[in-house]
Amino acid sequence: MTDAEDAGTAEVVFRSDVTVELVKCSAEDSDVLFAARVSTKGEQSLEDVHADPSRSTGLINYLLRDRHGSPFEHSTLTYYVQAPIFVFRELMRHRVASYNEESGRYRELRPVFYVPGEDRRLVQEGKPGAYRFVEGSPGQHKTVTQATRRACLEAYAAYREMLEAGVAREVARGVLPVCTYSSMYATMNARALMNFLSLRTRRDNAQFASYPQREIEMVAERMEEEWARVMPLTHAAFDANGRVAP
Fold first, then answer.
1. Average pLDDT in the 137-159 region?
2. Which CATH number fits domain 2-27+75-115+177-240: 3.40.1690.10, 3.40.1190.10, 3.30.1360.170, 3.50.30.10?
3. Is the confidence at residue 166, as pLDDT, over 70?
4. Average pLDDT of 82-103?
5. Stated pTM of the model
6. Active site residue 107
């Protein structure tokens, strides 16, 4: 969902979604095969660089089941992501990828802000480590929406006031909230991606339960969709084996 309001001369945009695009990749199921077979075939494994991976689903499944992880590192996937800053702070906790993010020091940040959508569960029940989120009331959703919009509009007005007074961008950005959208490239291999997905998605078939914040799960779901398209056999084995990273 996207809508907008006027704030002075600038149009402030409110979103409740994320953007994830696989912009570049060198990743396919056959990458796993030659990397794994070099341990037993040596130079003959070169024959497997362009092998038909559908004939080796058993090997891929075995590697994931028994957690032989290094063969899954010989691939790269580069994603372009637009999401709120607080999502990027969670993403960067995964020190298994390379990141480049847009800089509020070098460009004027756009007035695009995240506001939870109507389907976002708002109420936390239980204690840390044993809690769940449930639907909020219409009144709570109204409060969240109105309070978020008001805070963002005021913060952006203060940001623009400082810029127009000649204050450096790196100083003025300090008033902007973490729901401000940023953009980045994130590059990782299939093993790193599986580690990320195992922690940032919640699935009933997962061997180990995970309780991700919904907003980073939205990013993870889109990443997984793209990865499943380019490495379908590896993705299927990951899912079949309890979504445990090797």
1. 97
2. 3.30.1360.170
3. yes
4. 94
5. 0.92
6. no
Give yes or no for residue 68 having a pLDDT over 90. Answer: yes
pLDDT, the chain, mean: 93
Whose tokens are 């889109």? That residue is: 222
From 173, 200, 222, 243, active-site residue:
200
Q: Are 153 and 146 in contact (CB under 8 A)?
A: no
What's the CA gap between 16 and 154, in Å, rounded?
A: 19
State the burial class of residue 125 (Cβ atoms within 10 Å of its Cβ: 0-12, 13-18, 19+): exposed
Tell whether the model's pLDDT for residue 96 goes beyond 90.
no
Question: Which sign, positive or negative, has the C-alpha torsion 65, 66, 68, 71?
Answer: negative
